[in-house]
Design the sequence.
């Protein structure tokens, strides 16, 4: 079993842009500034991406982990 | 792993206006007066922001943490 | 971190009228008689506030904490 | 903090009629025969109260606590 | 507080027909063969009761406890 | 109290066809290959059963236990 | 009881294509790169499979385990 896999991917993504899909369909992009074992995330320069691909600037935010469905780190 | 990241952002926001997005779509703005590790929050001079951008004054409130989706601290 | 903030606000509200917003949209007003760390609440002389601002008397009630979204203590 | 408040109200209601509101809108009235710390309840001579105020007899039932929103003890 | 009340009612119902109401509205009747503290249940000769009171035979089943709303033991 | 009842029924069903009803209405049939105390299940030669009774082959699958409503073991 | 069954299937699937069905109906296919006991998953070269069978490339992603309904390992 590889318990630390998610954490390793998140650590490698610190300081980089990640894409977050939340329950209910909200999509957020931002610079990953921190995270914890519940997948609580802090993002900087974040923005919500609307269905029409317009964006809505959110600045620095904390995302509560239980809302997270998928985290996409940046391509390597 | 950076467990204390969310707490650090919340501590820096104490006494400042934060924007809270809740499950179900409610949006609340208020002066952050306290928080705990469940993201239970106490806000002062808070108001609900309606879809038409009108506001509804709520005064001092406690928000139960499991309803929180996103917390936006004030711009630095 | 200020873990006891919510509890302090609740303790100061004991014996006073509080407004409770529940998941699903129900709104209840009552005299706060007790609470615990799960935000289970006991209210006296409580009433449900309908969308048309009519009220429905509930008397003494126990509210199970996991239904709570927001607690508004009385203005100081 | 008054942790035992809900339990005190429930204990005083043993053997008396209580009104239970459940998630999803079901309303049940019955004689409170027992409870535990999860708000699991046993009711006797219980009945479901329909929206048209008709009742549907349920007899003795166990209510799983996580469905409970509000418990109304009898007026004192 | 009477923690063992639900368990006592369930134990007295072993080997007897019980009616189970589940989240989402499903109603199941069956012979209670076992249970645990999560209200996981095993039923024998069970059947689903449709809204038109037709029944759909299910035989022996395990019901995961977190789906349970109400358990009706047989009348004594 | 009979804590091991569900486990006994599941153990007796190992290597046999079981029917699984999931939250949201999905129905799956498969050969029970394993399970744990959360009702996580591994099924082999599994298939989803559609509302029109057509089937959709799924092969070997893991079902996360918190989605499970009912498990029907094979008739004895 | 066979607690390690799900983990054994997941370990055998490391480095192989798996199909993931999520709550809400999203379907994702990707190369399984890691997992933990909560069924948090890391996938590489992943893509979302739309209802019309078109695919939407997602690259490397972390899936939070509580969204997972079914994991289909590759046929052996």
Sequence:
């Amino acid at each position: 079993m590889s318990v630390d896999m998610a954490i390793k991917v998140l650590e490698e993504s610190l300081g980089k842009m990640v894409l977050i899909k939340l329950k209910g369909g909200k999509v957020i992009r931002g610079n990953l500034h921190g995270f914890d074992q519940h997948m609580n995330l802090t993002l900087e320069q974040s923005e919500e991406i609307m269905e029409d691909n317009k964006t809505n600037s959110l600045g620095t935010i904390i995302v509560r982990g239980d809302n997270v469905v998928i985290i996409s780190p940046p391509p390597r």
About this structure: Residues 18 and 75 of chain C are 9 Å apart (CA to CA). The domain at 5-72 of chain C is CATH 2.30.30.100 (SH3 type barrels.).
